[in-house]
Amino acid sequence: MKKFCLLLVLLLGAGLSVNAESTVNIFVRSLPNADLRLYIDGEEVCDLNGPTAKVQKLPSCSTDLVTSAPCYRILKINKDGEYTFKVAYEYTIPTDGSKKYYDMEKTFTITDGTTYNIHIDFKGIRKKEFTIPKEKDVQKWTKEWDELPTVTYPKKK
Fold this sequence. Notes:
Number of helices: 2
Mean pLDDT: 88
Order of helices and strands: HEEEEEEEEEEHE
Number of strands: 11
Strand order of the largest sheet: 10-9-1-6-11
């Protein structure tokens, strides 16, 4: 009976690991006048915009300076494979209200049941990159930053 129970546990465990979904935590710091959209393999998946943290009315600007709070989104991916992540970034220039468009793209190999942490790092308006944050930063950010609703990819039909 013990051998049967052990065999049953091993088989169930193996079956669960085959169907395990992966978790990708995507972190974005506070940004002014930004609209960020996440695309995976060319399909729009979600926005990456935190709640509004501050609105400033500046006399020399035609639009308000709206700053979002730092945030993170949990993304559940249903199967392993290579995925191309793209973040499209629309920036509104406060002085005249015109818009500038930027994007960044990187391919990640996702393995079932694994958790990944990705930081969308902005070092100036034109220098952006996906970075892998330190575990201590991830722990701090998940406590202090706003969590956006979890998204599943591909969407279950």
